[in-house]
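Students often ask why we bother encoding 3D structure as a string. The short answer is that it lets us treat folding as translation between two languages. Here is a chain of 464 residues written in the first language.
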Amino acid sequence: MPRPLLIVLCALAPVVTGCASPIRSTPSLPPPRTLGLPPAEPAGPAGLNNRSSPISDVNERDARPGEAVTLDGAIRRVLANSPDLAAAAEAVRAREGDARQAALWPNPDLIGEAENFGGTGDQQSFETAEYTVSLAQPIDVSGKVRRRSTAADYERRLSGWDYETTRLDLITSTRKAYADLVAAQRNVELTRELARLADDLAAAVGARVQAGKVSPVEATRIEVVRSATRAEALRAEQELSTARAALAALWGDAGSPVGWATEESQVDAGMPPSSTLESLLAGAPEAARWSDEIALREAEFDLARATAFPDVTASLGARRFAENDDYAFVAGLSVPLPVFDRNQGAIAAATSRRTEVERRRAAFLARQRADFQAAYDDVRRAEISVRSLDDRIIPSAQSVFTATTIGYQAGKFSLIDLLDAQRTLFEAQVQGVEARAALTKARADLERLIARPVEAAQSSNTGG
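And here it is in the second language, the structure alphabet:
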């Protein structure tokens, strides 16, 4: 390589390599909220499947299908195996790649030229030709690379908030599916008990019919009841199978067997005032992401304005004159003239998007407050329903059934009275199961909105 050209390349190399500025090293994901799990150390998506955390550290007992499952074990398994969460992590990785790419300067151009050959007279041959080799580098004079990198970094942060939203949605869906599973199990137990009572009653009625104490019509009536209870037991078992499949689908394998769900003990510590919980709405990922969303629109607006100033392309090279074998340096500067395209449309679009995000944020905050109030009221109504059923309705129905059973055995009540009391007790118990499941799911929705358990919110409010 000619020495002048080598000198040019060596001179430009530090400039070119210095243009590649890496993006800031910031956490890939926002800190996980504590809803449903103890807080974990934040980490990037690359470590989601490798780090030891409550998400990936699944107990062997919880992971093996077909065995007893707990709510905590179900949540851990869902977070460790959910395809939705894995897809959200890949979206974060993709944004990280975009951010790295946005921080890079454009590559230089290596330009080779040959002049003054193939003409007429003395210019017919290559003896008088001139050869030029140069490097051309676009120079960012308005900070577009930095602004583009900033915008891409905010995009990456937003994808981290989307990841956190997906994580909390999965936890909430798991809690609600688990509540449905527990309710389905309880209904199976109730229908089996009802069928057993119908069998016992059928045996007692049959004995009384044979003794001539009651009409054979009662035996027919009790057989109808037995058939109905068996049908209800079968329906309850089918609903249990559906509930198990719904829970298994959350961790990406609807066909895997799910064992018996352990009922979680519920401590009724009372609900804190709505104002206490409403103050926590800003910590939800959907609300916290708006600061980054607004910052992104600001960065895009700055980038649009900076793009109005075109890049300058500087070149430096060496030229060889064939006729006397002399060398000389050549330098150039290319400056586009922003006569027609001054990025007017992009600036106007960025201005509108900046205003749009402010309007959307205001609309979101209004919807969030309305959703919170509705969820809080749902919890209150469910609590009243559970207390009413547990404290008054079910005990009263149980007392009536017990008294009617004793009275029927003494001949004071008819079979219809006994069956009616039995049906009333069964329906009250089913309502109790449904009310408790509704309360669990209503609390899950409320805690999803504030992104933390109600108990933790109450403890932080009281200073505990």
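Translate back mentally: Confidence is low (pLDDT under 50) at residues 12-27, 36-65. Keep this in mind for the problem set.
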